[in-house]
Design brief:
CATH architecture of the largest domain: 2-Layer Sandwich
Radius of gyration: 17 Å
Strand content: 15-25%
CATH topology of the largest domain: Nucleotidyltransferase, domain 5
Helix content: 25-40%
Structural class: alpha/beta
Number of domains: 2
Largest sheet: 5 strands, mixed
Order of helices and strands: EEEHHHEHEHEEHHH
Number of strands: 7
Number of helices: 8
Distance between the termini: 31 Å
CATH class of the largest domain: Alpha Beta
Strand order of the largest sheet: 3-2-1-4-5
Length: 199
């Protein structure tokens, strides 16, 4: 499984650009990918997106950075090389998948990933439900954010600004703890898994 996190210049894949991409092979967590790029020519930049990911407009347009197409080619090459399972996973993996798909289309690259994804929101909701814990609600729907999932798994909330590799680490550790009841990253080794320490 490939845990994926994309930071972008906005939220619309056909209008905005990837700024950074982080990925991790859940079967071999030391096998990681992280790269940054400049926006594609004509892409829009939303200040609200930059506030989340910490990039400046200057960084988003820096000529010395790789193009989005170069980043997409590098990521696809990494993904086709070693991960055994290319199912994409994350907090909102359809967002990340759709940005990679749009980047591939702009670059004329075949998109090698399946449509179906695995998300930490659903995993966390199911785990809570199986243990008789009511999932948080807001505005008439589930409110399990990444921070909710992290805290549920005994982990600190994500840092801001949020970068793609940090996001991947958080998603991967949540998935490993919920799906396999195990720790996988040394960054989180000191944090116990709550349901292993309580009756």
């Amino acid at each position: 499984m490939i845990v994926l996190d994309v930071e972008a210049s906005g939220v619309i894949p056909t209008k905005h650009s990837i700024l950074s991409l982080g990925a991790l092979d859940l079967d071999e967590p030391s096998n990681q990918f992280y790269e940054e790029c400049r926006i594609w020519n004509g892409a829009h930049i939303d200040d609200a997106a930059l506030a989340v990911n910490g990039f400046s407009r200057e960084e988003a347009t820096a000529a010395e950075k790789k193009s989005e197409a170069e980043l997409a080619r590098a990521f696809i090459a990494w993904a086709l090389d070693r991960p055994r399972d290319r199912t994409l996973a994350g907090q909102n993996p359809s967002f990340d998948r759709d940005f990679v798909r749009a980047a591939c289309e702009r670059a004329g690259i075949d998109f090698p990933f399946p449509y179906r994804t695995i998300d930490t929101h659903t995993l966390c909701w199911l785990h809570m439900t199986e243990r008789g814990i009511a999932a948080p609600m807001a505005h008439g729907h589930s409110a399990i954010s990444l921070n909710t999932a992290l805290q549920y798994c005994g982990l600190p909330i994500e840092q801001r600004p949020h970068d793609a590799l940090g996001g991947v680490y958080a998603h991967a550790e949540v998935i490993a703890r919920i799906a396999y009841t195990k720790k996988i990253l040394p960054e989180y080794e000191i944090y116990p898994i709550p349901w292993m320490t309580k009756p």
